[in-house]
Design goal:
2 copies of one chain form a homodimer. By secondary structure, chain A is an alpha+beta fold. Chain A has a single domain, classed as Aminohydrolase, N-terminal nucleophile (Ntn) domain (Glutamine Phosphoribosylpyrophosphate, subunit 1, domain 1, 4-Layer Sandwich). Chain A is 35% helix and 28% strand. The first copy, chain A, has 5 helices and 12 strands. In chain A, the strands form 3 sheets. In chain A, strands 10-1-2-11-12 form a 5-stranded antiparallel β-sheet, with helices on one face. A 5-stranded antiparallel β-sheet of chain A has the order 5-6-7-8-9, with helices on one face. A two-stranded antiparallel ribbon of chain A has the order 3-4. In chain A, strand 8 and strand 9 form a beta hairpin. In chain A, helix 1 crosses helix 2, helix 3 packs antiparallel against helix 4 and helix 4 packs across helix 5. The mean pLDDT of chain A is 94. The interface between A and B is large, with 40 and 41 residues.
Chain lengths: 243, 243
């Protein structure tokens, strides 16, 4: 399985992903699900992928190839708006799924690939989109500033409560790690290494990209602290008189 | 959708359920999913149901009818062990699903009903079982003292971290409410009223049964407090130096 998320705040974007891929629990591997594209000085994109691994890789190859040899749908450089980039990525994704879908479905596999696309084009605000397997897309907003793909439920309660458009970019990055940790704690199919990319608004280049390995001391400290803080928070709650 | 859970601790059992039932978001109703059975002085059972509402109701009717007119599979009174009660409930559940499954599946509906059965028979320890739609069952243990059915993922992180076999029965009851609240906060298909039943070990009768309506002042206080505590817990975490 996979868990990826993006958070869109006033100061910029955070994109985060786990790296566990499995064909069943007995064939777990590590693959990056985060792909950065810097095709020109005036734009930066980050793509997160969930779903069929082979088709995800094929999609990334097509997007890079199209930068050299633009097809009729254009490429990440020809998009004039971020939503056009999302439309383009959705169209390429759908085409690849349509090509391989029948054979995959015939052998009981899903060709679905779902994406998060974040980035900025000069002169426009940064943006964050979920691009569905069907090719359509939806944007994060100030009211709901986060998007998730893959195994999304375990890590959603914290985002629902803490994610805010006006939170600091570093706090959003920390929140993405907490959400990843919450998911991995409850579901074996999601796990480190975790990747976290920080895009500061109007930077037009990726600010920082971090890789947290499974034995990263900070990750361990965060996980232990979060566990302790949650147990303490539970103890602080008003008590119901059950008697 | 539905979310029900049971927690098995040293001092007894907690069983909790939401009451929202829907055929799509535009036909949401309130139905109790908690059914207590006290068929004899030496035993007490509580059944929680998730899945096809009609078949759940039919199952409960069959279990009550069998107490008056035992069939070849016996009834809740003839079970000598709690696991035999779980086998019996699983067999009746499967029979009803087999009867109505073909017609339901033909119209695109699932006949699946999944159950949590908790209780005690005199002279044996209390027990908690998940009874799958296929009729088989599994028990909660001291290592993993909780069981969930329905929309289980949002409320699992807290259980993973806080639920312990040696926690107080009242704390387990409070934890069940927090887990229900976490689920309802992140998923519209789960909602109050919530029911919480407390079974003290060796009581052989239901200790207490509570109904928390959507406008219950304690529920509101708990939800607001939990939201605040989680945000504060997040602020207490060690900070990563992202710069």
């Amino acid at each position: 399985m996979t868990y990826c998320l993006g958070i869109c705040v006033e100061q910029g974007l955070v994109l985060a992903s786990d790296s566990r891929t499995s064909a069943g629990v007995d064939y777990a591997s590590v693959y990056s699900k985060m792909h950065a594209f810097k095709p020109a000085a005036d734009r930066q994109f980050v793509l997160l992928t969930a779903g069929n691994l082979a088709l995800s890789q094929q999609l990334v190859s097509h997007l890079r190839r199209d930068l050299d040899y633009p097809g009729p749908a254009g490429n990440l450089n020809s998009a004039r708006y971020l939503f056009e980039a999302a439309e383009y990525v959705g169209a390429v994704n759908l085409e690849i799924q349509n090509t391989h879908g029948p054979a995959l479905r015939a052998s009981g596999q899903s060709p679905d690939v779902t994406l998060i696309l974040g980035g900025q084009i000069a002169g426009q605000p940064p943006g964050l989109f979920i691009v569905y397997a069907q090719g359509n897309h939806a944007a994060a907003t100030a009211e709901t500033p986060f998007l998730q793909i893959g195994e999304i439920k375990y890590g959603k309660p914290m985002l629902d409560r803490v994610a805010r458009f006006d939170m600091a970019l570093e706090d959003a990055a920390q929140l993405s790690l907490v959400s990843l940790d919450a998911t991995a704690r409850s579901n074996l199919s999601v796990g480190p290494p975790y990747e976290v990319a920080i895009y500061p608004r109007d930077n037009l280049a990726l600010g920082k990209r971090f890789l947290f390995a499974g034995d990263d001391p900070f990750l361990d400290e965060l996980s232990v602290s979060w566990n302790r803080e949650l147990c303490e928070a539970f103890q602080q709650l008003p008590k119901f008189r059950w008697d």
